[in-house]
Specification:
The complex is a heterotrimer. By secondary structure, chain A is of the alpha+beta class. Chain A is built from five helices and five strands, in the order E-E-H-E-E-E-H-H-H-H. In chain A, helix 2 packs across helix 5. Chain B is α+β, with helices and mostly antiparallel strands. Chain B has three domains: 172 residues, Aldehyde Oxidoreductase, domain 4, CATH 3.30.365.10; 185 residues, Aldehyde Oxidoreductase, domain 3; 331 residues, Aldehyde Oxidoreductase, domain 4, CATH 3.30.365.10. In chain B, the strands form ten sheets. Chain B has a seven-stranded mixed beta sheet with strand order 3-7-1-16-13-14-15, sandwiched between helices. In chain B, a hairpin with a 2-residue loop joins strand 28 and strand 29. Chain C is globular. Chain C contains eleven helices and 14 strands. The longest helix of chain C is centred in the last third of the chain and has 22 residues. Classes of the chains: A alpha+beta, B alpha+beta, C alpha+beta. Chains A and B meet through helix 1, helix 2, helix 3, helix 4 and helix 5 of A and helix 2 and helix 18 of B.
């Protein structure tokens, strides 16, 4: 099958890739753009390890073809923070032991990022419901939930202080 | 030496050593998406492997035609058993003394079995080529029930037909693998025969799967120029993989480098050696370029590493006042098509003989019969030491059933049968020496914490309300008290493929006072890089933040048996402490020389050696390290390095007391975990934050197994639960918050008294969740019902008890 | 899990999509959110030589509320349904049901059109649409036609939609009275073991009218006219609810799967239907 050019804005940069229509976005991100943060876990859109943000939505990139992302704005875990300045969520996951093997973590944090954009002050129940598309096998979620709630509090107090 | 010297507490805190909730050093890369897992590794020219797999559970392979696949542009090779046979690699030895087909040799024995291996330029072409391989099958009768298999004329393992002796003694039938017996059967039968009270129960511990979020995979790279094979992969025991790879391939061991990169969870799934590894190695040797194979989720669930699948029949006897007098257990163990169970060689049923649990049982017997069926091989220890989850589930159910028989409270029955604190070290009837414990204290603390009497009162009121028709929700109080046996193990008892189960640590102190330590283990999320540095910090007085921990590269790490069965802390942790003590011993000589006193006149104090009685005269470890490299010290070699290979004198025996409170909707079978309290005693606590995280995770995996997670087959041997739609992995929504607690009873034989903790919550959690379900129905006459307790099975239990009759 | 090759089409209007369908017939399928179709393609259980991505067809998006008439474009996502306060005010049962579908990520992508059109008996929206007596607008080469949700489903994955038609809109009258969407599932992301949508209008102490429909309890969604009739005119007391449940159970035909055998499903269906009716009545 002939390849076609797909142009996407990935973590703030315009990127062009040549893909076959059947190439899944997760593999294109991981293998062509070398953004190996998002992972492949279940391949049937249950586990959320491949979660990235596309046009303001949390998306399981194993269940999307790269061609569908033509013109899209994509944020992966690599776009959330840098070694010199981690995102609040990244700091919070470290601080509250919100991860163990780390495999689900990029999808978790990317999803949590969107959740807090939409609901900056969630209850524990809302965090659990909002994170239910991401499976973690190691932590039992308790510290993930704690990390997200703490990050929300941190972001809110920072924005209050700024006002 | 000056007023600026920080006080002792500050110096201790600065080390971030034992007992400190140090934040994890791994997390910087993981939170930024910079972990390096197997599928993140890419080598130039790398090819991709993919399997043609059997759709049938039992069939003769009449022919395999690879022409169409080979004709596809981009396909480099298609391997079948015929191609592997000249290399004697069409079969491989298993960890259990059996052998296993690498690629189907004449027949297939389980659904999803590897039939051919396609190697292609990319994963897309490989997947297309898999579709083009034509395999002609002739279906054979399928055996999915081990009891049927033992009666059937159908011979599953034709390669073994006529062999009456297996790796573990005589075989009674062509589908029988072994009989393993421990204890005194005649004596046990006699005691049970004469007992006041006997409870009997048969229980099935269903087949399940560890299902780490990252599936298994490897990348083999044969460098033909230098004759070196590098193998990257999801290996929980990289050194053993190197040895096996050498034995199988004939490549000398020094020419093989095995690297376990970051591993996305293991839970036992990544202990075994799988056909994908062998095929990738062969394909790389044949093609001379790197070959990667990573399984998908369905392949993972269907073919690599099942767990459990034990049919357990028990009899337990007691005096009328509840003192247990004897225990008899027989297991029919479904091992699938090949006996590939991952146990120490001399233990074909693992440590199932820990099934006397936490109780002082004077006489006991365990018999296990292993059986072949048309299911996937594996038999790994899913988040537990070898078969300990099965053993603890068995005894914790037998206790409950005995309590029913005695009409006694199950908490009290446990209390009066606990091994007493004064009885340690305790010799169990089935041959183990428990190192230390204080069960009564833990139990009392747990029951007080949850207000056990109050819960029972509430439950009784609920039962009355239910009978009056005021509620349709019952309340269950799940209890479990477990004793784990971890840290395999003493080399005299425990080996894998002949390799003694010691472990190792090698330390190098750098001139400027920082260090690197390498171990024979490999983290899969446990946080070794954080916690082993803490052990060492306390031992050698160098801050944990200045110590790099490295594992998983066999070219650099000392030989070790890997990470599973909670053995890292008990064995490699001990090796770390012992190697640290060697460093300290040499440091002492250097310090004495620098301080111009006799060796015996200095003593270690947190991060320095001080002159006894003159604490103002000291040398810090940093100063000592520098001196080790820049001073000629008479009688002392330059440098500051040490290595320790630790053969533990015994296993360690962590224990814990768990209580679960659950509400059950009788009409729908829906459950709600209201409360879960977990008290763990893992001896000395290295990092409380990490311990707590391990407990949350282990309990969640226990919840999954008890409440719904299974690998189910239909009568044709088709896997019914091959994707995450049906294989139950709970989300944040289904999981409760847990309350954690602890007591500390150090191991007397471990250098720092630590016991290992990662698997305890799974081992103790499964019976606790299950007992909560069963306890809810006890007032209505339930004795036992099998897991998993999903909605329909709970409903069935309620239905069978007449609770839906109006 | 790698899908077979296909050709990708991304039309910007319905006519463009219809043209591809007309050209390739059976070989072409439209892609909405993709969370049913793409896994099937990856498992090689669906072979789609021509995939028509509808994301750029603006005419298929949006929620329109005119008086008591609600029209929803087929490409409107579950997330958008949930987020729309206007829709929630007009038809709160939609948010209640949509929140019980799949998980957050899937709801950002999954569309109402995909959910109703592909005929998967596990999907929640078809039963809900039957409960609401919605109408589906289908557009094909010969023009546009409207089909009632209650007569759209023929068998699992078989609907009244012609291969060369596209389901473009869903419309229904804003429901009045009480509502409930009750669903039992094993976990987040699962299909229903049993689910039921109920709408009840109250007049004084009596049920003026009712509508009851069920999900995943037959190979198609089931609207139970008899259950509605059993409730109408009653005080929605125990006897009436019982009669309605009995009537609804007559209309379903569940099959055994990993969620449990038929006997269990029939029992749970009864409980879920009764809870849906009682909750709808409590809000009526």
């Amino acid at each position: 099958m002939t390849k076609q050019i797909v142009e996407m804005m990935v973590n703030g940069e315009t990127r062009e890739v040549m893909v076959e229509p059947r190439e899944l976005l997760i593999y294109v991100l991981r293998e062509q753009l070398r953004l190996t943060g998002p992972h492949v876990g279940c391949e049937t859109s249950h586990c959320g390890a491949c979660t990235v943000e596309i046009n303001g939505k949390s998306v399981k990139s194993c269940t999307m073809f790269a061609v569908q992302a033509q013109g899209a704005e994509i944020t992966t875990i690599e776009g959330l923070g840098s070694p010199d300045g981690l995102h609040v969520l990244q700091e919070s996951f470290k601080e509250h032991h919100g991860l163990q093997c780390g495999y689900c973590t990029p999808g978790m944090i990317t999803r949590a990022h969107r959740l807090l954009q939409e609901n900056p002050n969630p209850t524990e129940e809302e965090v659990r419901f909002g994170m239910a598309g991401n499976i973690c096998r190691c932590t039992g979620y308790q510290n993930i939930v704690k990390s997200i709630l703490a990050a929300a509090a941190e972001i809110n107090s920072a924005s209050e202080a700024a006002q | 030496m000056n007023d600026l010297t920080p006080d002792r507490d500050e110096r201790v805190a600065n080390l971030k050593g034992l007992g400190c909730s140090r934040k994890r050093v791994e997390d910087a890369r993981f939170t930024q998406g910079k972990g390096n897992y197997i599928d993140d590794i890419s080598l130039p020219g790398m090819l991709h492997g993919d399997f043609v797999r059997s759709p049938y559970a039992h069939a003769r392979v009449k022919s395999i035609n690879t022409d169409a696949a080979m004709a596809l542009d981009g396909v480099v090779a298609v391997l079948t058993a015929k191609d592997l046979e000249p290399l004697s690699l069409h079969w491989m030895p298993t960890l259990a003394g059996d052998k296993q087909m690498v690629l189907a040799d004449g027949k297939v024995l389980f659904q999803g079995q590897e039939v051919a291996f396609v190697v292609a330029r990319d994963r897309y072409i490989a997947a297309d080529a898999v579709e083009l391989v034509e395999v002609e099958y002739e279906e054979l009768p399928v055996l999915v029930d081990p009891f049927e298999a033992l009666k059937s004329d159908v011979v599953l393992r034709e390669d073994l037909d006529g062999q009456t002796e297996g790796a573990h003694g005589p075989r009674k039938h062509h589908n029988h693998i072994f009989t393993w017996e421990v204890g005194d059967e005649a004596g046990t039968n006699a005691v049970i025969g004469d007992a006041d009270v006997v409870a009997e129960e048969t229980m099935y511990y269903h087949r399940t799967h560890p299902c780490p979020l990252e599936p298994c995979g490897c990348l083999a790279s044969m460098d033909k120029v230098n004759g070196k094979l590098t193998l990257y992969g999801t290996f929980q025991a990289p050194h053993v993989v190197r040895t096996v790879a050498s034995l199988l391939s004939g490549i000398e061991e020094h020419n093989i480098r095995v690297v376990s990169p970051d591993i996305g969870g293991g839970f036992g799934n990544k202990v075994g050696v799988y056909p994908g590894y062998v095929c990738s190695i062969v394909a790389s040797i044949v093609t001379g370029v790197p070959v990667k194979w990573v399984e998908d989720r369905m392949e993972n669930l269907m073919t690599t590493a099942f767990a459990r699948d034990y049919w357990m029949k028990g009899r337990i006897s007691a005096t009328r006042d509840g003192k247990i007098t004897g225990l008899h257990c027989h297991v029919t163990a479904d091992h699938g098509a090949f006996d590939a169970c991952a146990d120490p060689t001399k233990f074909p049923a693992g440590f199932m003989n820990i099934c006397t649990g936490s109780y002082d049982i004077p006489i006991a017997y365990l018999g296990v019969d292993g059986v072949y069926t048309n299911k996937a091989p594996g038999g790994v220890s899913y988040r537990c030491s070898f078969r300990v989850t099965e053993a603890v589930y068995f005894i914790e159910r037998m206790i409950e059933v005995l309590a029913i028989e005695l009409n006694m409270d199950a908490a009290e029955l446990r209390r009066i049968n606990f091994i007493g604190k004064e009885q340690f070290p305790y010799q169990s009837a089935l041959g183990w020496e428990y190192d230390s414990g204080d069960y009564h204290t833990a139990w009392d603390k747990a029951l007080a914490a949850v207000d056990y009497d109050g819960l029972r009162k509430e439950q009784a009121e609920r039962v009355e309300a239910f009978k009056r028709g005021e509620t349709r929700t019952l309340m269950g109080i799940g209890l479990s008290f477990f004793t784990e046996i971890v840290g395999a193990g003493p080399v005299k008892n425990c080996d894998i493929l002949g390799m003694g189960m010691f472990d190792s640590c090698e330390i190098r102190i750098h001139p400027t006072g920082s260090a690197i330590a390498r171990l024979g283990t490999i983290s899969q999320g446990q946080g070794h890089a954080t916690t082993f540095a803490q052990i060492l910090a306390s031992e050698i007085g160098i801050p944990a933040d200045s110590i790099t921990i490295e594992e998983g590269d066999t070219d650099t790490a000392p030989y070790g048996l890997g990470t599973y069965g909670s053995r890292s802390t008990p064995v490699a942790g001990a090796a770390t402490a012992m190697a640290g003590r060697k460093i300290r011993a040499k440091a002492q000589m250097i310090a004495a020389y620098l301080l111009e006193v006799h060796d015996d006149d200095v003593e270690f104090d947190v991060d320095r050696f001080v002159v006894k009685g003159a604490p103002e005269r000291f040398k810090t470890m940093s100063e000592i390290a520098y001196a080790a490299y820049n001073q000629a010290i008479p009688g002392v070699e330059p440098g500051l390095e040490a290595v320790s290979y630790y053969d533990p004198p015994n296993m360690t025996y962590p224990f814990g007391a768990y209580v679960c409170v659950m509400d059950i909707d009788v009409d729908t079978g829906v459950t709600d975990i209201r409360r879960f309290y977990a008290l763990d005693d893992c001896g000395t606590r290295i990092n409380p934050m990490v311990i707590e995280g391990q407990i949350h995770g282990g309990l969640t995996e226990a919840l999954a197994v008890a409440m719904g997670q299974e690998i189910a087959y239909d009568d044709m041997g088709n896997v019914k639960t091959g994707t995450l739609m049906d294989f139950f992995l709970p989300t944040a929504w289904e999981v409760p918050n847990y309350e954690t607690d602890h007591t500390v009873t150090p191991s007397p034989h471990h250098p720092i008294g630590a016991k290992g903790v990662g698997e305890s919550p799974h081992v103790g959690g499964v019976p606790c969740f299950s007992n909560a379900v069963q306890d809810a129905f006890r007032p209505f006459g339930l004795r036992h019902t099998n897991m998993p307790h999903d909605h329909w099975r709970i409903w069935k239990t309620a239905n069978g008890l007449g609770l839906h009759d109006t | 899990m790698i899908p077979p090759s296909f050709e990708y089409h991304r039309p910007t209007d319905v006519a463009g999509a219809l043209a591809v369908l007309a050209e390739h017939g059976d070989d072409a399928r439209v892609l909405a959110g993709g969370h049913s179709l793409i896994p099937m393609m990856k498992l090689r259980m669906a072979d789609v030589p021509h995939l028509i991505d509808l994301q750029d067809v603006a005419a298929l998006k949006g929620i329109e509320i005119a008086g008591d008439q609600i029209t929803i474009g087929a490409m409107t996502t579950q997330h958008e349904l949930i987020a729309s306060d206007a829709l929630h005010a007009a038809a709160p049962i939609i948010r209640e049901a949509a929140l019980q579908i799949a998980d957050p990520q899937v709801r950002y992508m999954g569309t109402i059109g995909g959910n109703v059109a592909n005929g998967d008996p596990g999907n929640d929206m078809p039963g809900l649409m039957q409960c609401l007596d919605a109408r589906f607008t289908l557009e094909g080469a010969d023009g546009t036609r409207t089909v009632a949700a209650r007569s759209f489903y023929e068998a699992a994955y078989m609907t009244d939609r012609d291969d060369e038609e596209i389901l473009t809109h869903i419309s229904f009258a804003a429901p009045r009275g009480g509502y409930a969407y009750e669903k039992q599932k094993r976990k987040i992301g699962d299909y229903a073991t049993a689910a039921c949508a109920a709408l009840i209008e109250r007049e004084g102490d009596k049920v003026a009218s009712a509508s009851v429909a069920m999900t995943n309890l037959s190979d198609i969604p089931v609207f139970s006219e008899a259950a509605a009739a059993a409730l109408a005119g009653s005080a929605c007391d125990d006897a009436a609810v019982k009669a309605a449940v009995a009537a609804a159970l007559e209309d379903i035909d569940p099959t055994e799967d990993n969620r449990g055998p038929v006997e269990f499903k029939m029992h749970v269906a009864g409980i879920i239907i009764s809870r849906a009716i009682q909750r709808a009545w409590s809000r009526a």
